[in-house]
Amino acid sequence: MEKRLIPFVDPSIGVDEANAASEVIKSKNLVEGKNTRSFERKFSKMTNTKYAIATTNGTVALQLAMESSPLKPGEEVITTPFTFIATTNSILYTGNVPKFVDIDPNTWNLDINKVEEAITENTKAIMPVHIFGLAADMKAFSDLAEDHNLYLIEDAAQAHGARIDGQHVGGFGDVGTFSLYITKNLVSGEGGIITTNNEEIADKITSLKNHGRTLKGGYKHIRVGFNARMTDVVGAIADIQMDKIDDLLKKRSYIANSYRKVVDEIDQIDYQHIPKGMEHGNYIFAIDTRNHTIKPAEAVSRLRQLGILARPIYSTLSYQQESFKDLSNWRWSNYVEYPNYSNVVCPVSESIAINHFEIPIVPSLTNEEIESVKSALVEIFK
Ligand SMILES: Cc1ncc(COP(=O)(O)O)c(C=O)c1O
Which residue's alpha carbon is nearest to atom 12 within ligand 1? Predict the structure, then answer.
């Protein structure tokens, strides 16, 4: 058989998911129903949170999390610039103001000390992102949020399987949000889920995602809402994925540990450091080239020649995006004053942004493919 290009995207779905989706279609109960409820129960169990609420995707989950907050337009939310753009867009949608704080050079997550320094009278929330599947320091963020009375939203889109002292992420803040996008550790194509331990927040989000209805349903609407419901076809796929998640995470962890050993033997390249007590969800394995003369573009091209797909991810930080350069066309700018984002400087984020790239870590990798990636790293960097 011809060798495949070793991929960084290869969702672990197959016959079980196809059968489950097909059963839903045959039943004609296409809208959110028993499969979605079952998925939610399993997710709540995995994250040890009281409530898990399925949504159409991880972006909408973040918007609902912002909508569930007591924030008023114009108030600030501290977040990281080293993330997917949905994090920051969710803050803008509700008329709030993203305030970018730099990341830690070792974990690549929001730097707690810099966050503390950045808090002002107008700061009302923090949105840490568990980048690439490694948890932000949520115990410290939770204390900080409590001290300053800030709403705490975990963007855990990438972090199924990330734990701090055995506790899964998603329950440390007021609300946690996850994505089930095709690249994620748990996939349903598009899909999202929100976790919380707070009944009031859970009820509000459940109503908001269903047109602001009362929890009894029907045509009584107690607030302005959206339609952010999952379909039961998607719920059925996600439900099957929950039965496989432990094995999928184990495989990712096996691959990541095997890469870490090789990178440890090569001077001048590195990876995200995992603080004591943390378990990495291993969504993405990124090579850090800050101290090497070979840079991501060259490495990615040489890997491609060796049959391995790799890519830089957030080489443009959120505040460097075109959409941020001029917010005057954004509807909220008639009511809210935004800082000039061209003046923002986060040196650590800027350096990591242009000095990292991901290598394949999908659970379908064979031992032979893992070995090929490892020897390619040695060949290119040693
Ligand atoms: C950090 C982060 N936040 C939010 C999202 C948005 O999730 P979705 O693609 O499901 O809308 C993603 C993923 O794609 C993400 O990586």
Answer: 157
pTM of the complete model beyond 0.85: yes
Question: What are the CA-CA distances from residue 4 to residues 10, 355, 363, 380 (Å)?
Answer: 12, 27, 15, 21
Q: 157 C-alpha to center of ligand 1: Å?
A: 5
Q: CA separation (Å) from 242 to 18, 102, 161? A: 15, 34, 11
Domain finish residue from 183, 212, 241: 241
340 has pLDDT over 90: yes
Nearest atom, ligand 1, residue 183 CA:
14
Cα–Cα distance between 269 and 114 in angstroms, integer? 26
pLDDT (tens digit per residue) in 168-177: 999 999 999 9
pLDDT at residue 118 tops 80: yes
State the distance from the centre of ligand 1 to the C-alpha of 180, rounded, in angstroms: 8
CATH number for the domain harbouring residue 290 = 3.90.1150.10
Distance 190 CA to ligand 1 centre (A): 10
Q: Which amino acid would we find at residue 128?
A: P
Determine the atom of ligand 1 nearest the C-alpha atom of 192: 10
Expressed as residue numbers, the domain containing 375 is 245-313+352-381
- The span from the CA of 281 to the CA of 27, in Å, is 35
Q: Contact, 178 vs 34, CB < 8 A?
A: no
Residue 217 has pLDDT above 90, yes or no: no
